[in-house]
Structure formats: C-alpha cells, structure tokens
Design goal:
- By secondary structure, the chain is mainly α.
- The protein has two domains: about 1-30; about 30-185.
- Helix content is about 60%, strand content about 5%.
- It has helices spanning about 1-25, 40-45, 45-85, 90-140, 170-180, and strands spanning about 30-35, 145-150.
- The chain has a two-stranded parallel ribbon.
- Helix 4 (about 90-140) crosses helix 5 (about 170-180).
C-alpha cells in the first residue's frame, strides 16, 4: 500500500510540473497566442521566387542530360531490333549488355538528379527559413505574444489550427512587414488557405525501360 502511494505521488508530481510551467507566463500578463502560416509567408518573399527559378533551371539541365542518354539508348535499341537477327551470338550478347548498362545508367541519373534537386532546395531554403524564424521571434517579442503557432503542419498533415474566431491574433501581416514585404500589395492572408508546399523537390522525368526484347538467335 505504501509503495502504491509513493508511485501515485510521483505520477501527480510529473503531471503538475508542466501545468505550472504553462501557467507561470500567463500570470505575468502574457496571454496573447498568435498564429501564422509559414508556407504562405515564405511564398511571398522575393527569395522564394529566386529559389524556385534556380530549382527550375537546375531541373531543366538534369532533364536534358537524362533525355540525351535516353535518346542514345533508344537509338541503339532500335538498331538492335532491326539487326539483332543477323548478329552472331557474341555480338548480340555484347549489344544486349550495352543496352542494359545504358538502362542502369539512366536509372542512376534519375536517382542522382532527384537527390541533387532536394539537396539544392534545402541549401536555398535554409537561409530563408532562418530569416523567417528571426522575424517571427521579433514579432512575438515586440507584440507580447506568448506563442505564435504555425497554422499549417505541412504537406499531407492536419493543420494545427482548425478554427480561429477572428483575425485579431493573426501575426502573418506583422511578420511580412518585419521581412520588408507590404501585405497590402500581396494576396490577403487567409487562415484557411493552404499554399503549395515549398519543401518538395520536383521529380526528374523517368523514361521508359530500354531492356531489349528477346530476338531469335541466328542458326
């Protein structure tokens, strides 16, 4: 019985600790809880447009390289289909191996292109996120917010804020002004709006498989 009482008291202590931590700031008068949409804010920054343009240029370059290799594979495959029946077993095996190597090369290029785009986007996005985060910190301190919550939890997730009674604590315009963007010149920030994600990298084009069809061997 004594042991159960000790366990109960420890559990109560663990539960009460976060409650005290949450109520302490409120006692000092900091009761404002603001919200924003980080994806929306990022989409309105000039740096975001520059980032998107650089990603599109890089993607076009990678697609071009993959397309050229794919074209080479297609031409060699068509030649193989046309002349395969007249080839000796040794030459046919060599051509098939060459086509298989080209297919493997294309698949590797696609994988590397995707990884390269993701890495580049992360590198370009990191300073933008840092800048936005600094602006949020400044707005929170200057306007007496206890918290500023992100209303969008990310692509494929449920938004953190499902209902807001008014726009009074919407900190989006304050954050945009802190970042040097005039909110009156951009589309009004709507709490229910969910802009396109800025973290997903575009996928490289995947060409059709180039595995050669079985050809009758020369007798």
């Amino acid at each position: 019985m004594k042991q159960k009482l000790i366990v109960f008291m420890v559990a109560m202590a663990m539960l009460s600790t976060p409650l005290l931590a949450q109520t302490t700031p409120a006692a000092s008068g900091l009761t404002k809880i603001g919200y924003t949409n980080v994806d929306y804010v990022i989409s309105k920054l000039p740096e975001s447009k520059v980032m998107q343009n650089q990603i599109e240029v890089t993607k076009a370059q990678l697609d071009k390289a993959i397309g050229e290799t794919y074209k080479e594979a297609q031409e060699k495959y068509e030649a193989y289909q046309k002349n395969g029946a007249q080839m000796t077993d040794v030459i046919r095996a060599d051509k098939e191996k060459e086509l298989q190597n080209l297919q493997t090369r294309i698949q590797e290029m696609q994988t590397n292109a995707q990884q390269s785009l993701q890495t580049k986007q992360q590198q370009l996005l990191e300073p933008i996120l840092t800048k936005v985060n600094n602006a949020i910190q400044d707005v929170g301190k200057e306007n007496g917010f206890l918290y500023i919550l992100n209303m969008d939890a990310g692509q494929g997730t449920t938004p953190i804020i499902l209902f807001a009674a008014s726009e009074e604590n919407n900190a989006t315009n304050l954050i945009l002004r802190k970042l040097g963007v005039d909110p009156d010149k951009v589309e009004a920030a709507a709490p229910a709006a969910k802009p396109a994600t800025t973290t997903a990298a575009p996928a490289a084009t995947k060409p059709a498989a180039t595995t050669p069809a079985t050809t009758p061997k020369k007798k």
